[in-house]
Design brief:
Number of domains: 3
Distance between the termini: 12 Å
CATH class of the largest domain: Alpha Beta
C-alpha cells in the first residue's frame, strides 16, 4: 500500500508507544490496562481532531478492545467488528497506529476492517448486522477442520436491530458451537436506537434487584474456578437462571440457545478481562452484554452522541470547537433539500409518511420527524423490513417515502421487487448517497443503483442534475400512483442556485437539452450533467461542438429524443456516475440496437471494480471522471482514437496486507 508519512506516537503515550502488536499488549500487567486504554483514547482524539473519521463509536469501545486483545490472540483468534467503524482502537493495537493519520485517505487505511489490509481483520464489515452470520460460518469451518481458534462477534452501535443478527442467533442456538457474541449496548446507532429490543435491554440494565444479585455472583464466584466441583457450578448456573427468569422481562437470548452473561461495565478493564477469560473457557454459544457510553472520554461527544458519530476533523480537543476558519456560507446538502421539500409536501398532504432505517439525520428525515412526528417511522437497521413496511402502508392509501442510502437499499432488493414493484405499489424511494461518497469507500459508494433498478418492471427511475430538479422530481413522484418511483441523488452540497417557489411537475420520461452542438452528442444523468457541460466547454476550445442532454430519467427512457439524436449524430457519449454495466449506457445501447440505429456509443462511468476510499477529487482524478479527462476521452472517441467502446476508466489501486 502506498502510504502517507507515519504519525509519531511520542512520549505523550509511554505505554502505547511500545505496542506494535497485540503480543506487546500482553506484556503489560492487568493493572496497567486502564492506562493503555486511556492513552488509546487520547491518541484517537488527537488523530480524529486533525484528520476526521468515525469517532463516538470507537471512543465507546476503548476498554473493551484492549481487554479483547489482552485475552484473545489475533490473528489466530478471530474478532469481527459490527459495525466496522467501531474498530479504530483495534487498528491502533494491531500494528497500524503509526498509519492512523492516513485513515480514510486515498491510498491510506480504510475506515472499516478490511481483510486485505491486515491479518487481524477477520472480516470486512461496512454494513451492519453481518457479524454473527460471518462468525457462525467461521465457527462451522473451524469445527469441520478440527482447529481451535476462538470466534468473537462484537455487535453494537445499533447493529443488533438488524434481522440478520437474529437469523444467525436462531441458527447458532441449535449448533452448540463455541462462539462468543459481545453485545456493545450503547443504546445508539447514528441516532438513538428504536424498537422493542432497545426497551428490552434497558429493562435488563435498569433492574436494580437483578443487577445487585448478578454483581454478587460475579464478584464472589468464578464460574470456572477449578476449586469448585460440578455440583457447585451447576448450583451457580441454576441460581443465575432463576434470577433471570424471575426478574428480567424474558430470557430472550437464552431462549435462542445462547448462555447470557451481564450486563457488565464496558469501561472497567478489570471486569472486562475477567469476563473475557471466563468466556474463553465456555464451549458453547454465549452472549456477553456490555454497557458502554458512545463518545466516552470526550465530553462534547458524550453530550451530543449523534453529532459526534463522525467528524470531519479540525477541532479543538479540549472544547470540541471547530478550528476551521469561517468562510463563505456553504450551499445546502442534497439531503437537506430533500428533507425540507418532503416536509413542505407533507404539510399539505396528510397521506405522506417518511420511513428510514436508522438514518433520520443522515437522510434529513428528522426534518419531517420534528414537524410531523406521527408520520415518521425509524425501523432500526432493517432495510428489508423498511421496504415491506412501506409497501403495507401504500396498500392503505398512504404515500410512503422510504429514504435509504443507495448502498443500503441493496440489502432490500428482494422486497423492492417482490413486495413493491410486482404489486405496482406507489412507494417512493429517496436514494441518498448515490454515486461516489468519498472517504467511506467501497462499502458505501452508491455504484450500482441505476444497474439494479433498471431491470425492475413497473419502476420509474430519476436522477436530478441539481437541487431544483430534486424538488420537482419529489413532487412528480408524489403525484404518481401507478407504481414505485426511485430518485437517486448524491452526497454533498448542492449548486447553490436560487430555487423557484413552489413545486413543478415534470413530464414523465422527458429529457432536456442543456447545450446544443453539431459535432457529437453527450447524454448525461444526475451529477454528470454539469461535468459534461464543463467537458463540452473544453472541447469547444478545440473546435469540437458537443451537444449535452440531461436525460433525467433512466426509466422510462426518452426514446423519442434518443431517436432524434441518433439520426443527427454518428457518435454518442453516455456519462453516468454508476457502474458501466447495466446503467444508462446499457439502456441507450439496448434501445439503439433494438431500433437498428447505427450510432457508435462510448460509455463513461464507474469501472467494473470496487472503488477505493479517498476524497472525491482524488477519486474523480483516479477514475478519470474529472472534466479534463472526460473531455480527453470524448476527443479521442470523436477523432477515432479511443481504444475501447466502453471506456470505464478502470485503474489498478495497489494494496498490500499488513501482517
Amino acid at each position: 500500500m502506498e502510504q502517507l508519512p507515519p504519525y509519531s506516537v511520542n512520549e505523550k503515550f509511554p505505554f502505547l508507544s511500545n505496542i506494535h502488536s497485540p503480543e506487546d499488549l500482553k506484556k503489560y500487567k492487568p493493572e496497567d490496562l486502564q492506562k493503555v486504554a486511556d492513552e488509546c483514547r487520547s491518541y484517537l482524539i488527537d488523530v480524529v481532531a486533525e484528520n476526521g473519521g468515525h469517532f463516538g463509536s470507537s471512543l465507546g469501545v476503548v476498554e473493551m478492545t484492549v481487554a479483547l486483545h489482552y485475552v484473545y490472540k489475533t490473528p489466530h483468534d478471530k474478532i469481527i467488528w459490527d459495525v466496522g467503524h467501531q474498530a479504530y482502537i483495534h487498528k491502533i493495537l494491531t500494528g497500524r497506529k503509526d498509519l492512523m493519520q492516513t485513515n480514510r485517505k486515498f491510498n491510506g487505511l480504510a475506515g472499516f476492517p478490511k481483510i486485505s489490509e491486515s491479518l487481524h481483520d477477520a472480516f470486512g464489515t461496512g454494513h451492519a448486522s453481518t457479524s454473527i452470520s460471518a462468525a457462525a460460518g467461521m465457527a462451522a469451518a473451524r469445527d469441520l477442520s478440527g482447529s481451535n481458534e476462538k470466534i468473537i462477534a462484537v455487535i453494537g452501535d445499533g447493529s443488533m436491530t438488524g434481522g440478520m443478527a437474529f437469523e444467525a442467533m436462531n441458527h447458532l442456538g441449535d449448533s452448540k458451537t463455541d462462539i462468543l457474541v459481545v453485545l456493545n449496548d450503547n443504546q445508539m446507532a447514528i441516532a438513538p436506537s428504536t424498537g422493542g429490543l432497545k426497551n428490552y435491554l434497558i429493562n435488563i440494565t435498569l433492574n436494580k434487584t437483578y443487577n445487585r444479585v448478578r454483581k454478587f455472583i460475579w464478584d464472589s464466584i468464578s464460574l470456572l474456578n477449578n476449586d469448585l466441583g460440578d455440583a457447585a457450578k451447576n448450583a451457580v448456573h441454576k441460581i443465575e437462571d432463576g434470577i433471570k427468569a424471575a426478574l428480567t422481562p424474558g430470557a430472550f437470548f437464552e431462549a435462542l440457545g445462547f448462555r447470557y452473561f451481564g450486563p457488565i461495565d464496558g469501561h472497567n478493564t478489570e471486569q472486562l478481562v475477567r469476563a473475557f477469560k471466563e468466556m474463553h473457557e465456555l464451549p458453547h454459544p454465549k452472549l456477553l452484554h456490555v454497557i458502554t457510553t458512545k463518545g466516552k472520554g470526550f465530553k462534547p461527544a458524550e453530550d451530543d452522541q449523534s453529532k459526534w458519530h463522525a467528524s470531519s476533523g479540525g477541532f479543538d480537543i479540549s472544547t470540541g470547537k471547530s478550528l476551521k476558519k469561517p468562510g463563505e456560507a456553504q450551499p445546502p446538502k442534497y439531503q437537506d433539500i430533500f428533507g425540507r421539500a418532503l416536509k413542505e409536501l407533507a404539510d399539505k398532504d396528510h397521506r405522506i409518511v417518511g420511513i428510514t432505517a436508522a438514518m433520520p439525520s443522515g437522510t434529513s428525515l428528522d426534518i419531517l420527524q420534528k414537524a410531523h412526528p406521527k408520520r415518521f417511522y425509524d425501523v432500526g437497521i432493517a432495510e428489508q423490513h423498511a421496504v415491506t413496511f412501506a409497501a403495507g402502508m401504500a396498500t392503505k392509501g398512504y404515500k410512503p417515502v422510504c429514504a435509504i442510502y443507495s448502498t443500503f437499499l441493496q440489502r432490500a432488493y428482494d422486497q423492492l421487487i417482490h413486495d413493491v414493484a410486482l404489486q405496482k405499489l406507489p412507494v417512493v424511494f429517496a436514494i441518498d448517497r448515490a454515486g461516489l461518497v468519498g472517504e467511506d469507500g467501497p462499502t458505501h459508494h452508491g455504484s450500482f443503483d441505476l444497474s439494479y433498478l433498471h431491470p425492475v418492471p413497473n419502476m420509474m427511475v430519476m436522477a436530478p442534475k441539481d437541487e431544483q430538479e430534486l424538488r420537482d422530481m419529489l413532487y412528480t413522484a408524489m403525484q404518481y400512483q401507478e407504481g414505485p418511483v426511485a430518485i437517486r441523488y448524491p452526497r454533498g452540497v448542492c449548486t447553490g442556485m436560487t430555487l423557484r417557489p413552489g413545486f413543478h411537475a415534470m413530464e414523465i420520461g422527458r429529457s432536456e437539452i442543456e447545450r446544443d452542438g453539431s459535432s457529437i452528442a453527450i447524454l448525461a444523468i444526475g451529477t454528470m450533467v454539469q461535468r459534461s457541460v464543463e467537458a463540452a466547454k473544453i472541447l469547444e476550445q478545440e473546435g469540437i461542438d458537443a451537444l449535452v442532454a440531461n436525460m433525467r430519467f433512466l426509466k422510462p427512457l426518452d426514446t423519442k429524443m434518443l431517436n432524434s439524436i441518433a439520426e443527427r449524430y454518428e457518435k454518442i457519449v453516455v456519462i453516468e456516475e454508476n457502474s458501466i454495466i447495466g446503467g444508462l449506457g446499457s439502456a441507450v445501447n439496448d434501445h439503439l440496437q433494438k431500433e437498428g440505429l447505427p450510432s457508435s456509443v462510448l460509455t463513461i462511468g464507474l469501472p467494473d471494480a470496487f472503488v477505493t476510499h479517498g476524497s472525491m477529487n482524488d477519486l474523480y482524478r483516479q477514475l478519470e471522471l474529472d472534466a479534463a479527462n472526460v473531455s480527453r476521452k470524448i476527443r479521442n472517441f470523436y477523432k477515432g482514437t479511443a481504444t475501447e467502446k466502453n471506456e470505464s476508466s478502470q485503474s489498478t489501486i495497489r494494496t498490500e496486507r499488513l501482517a
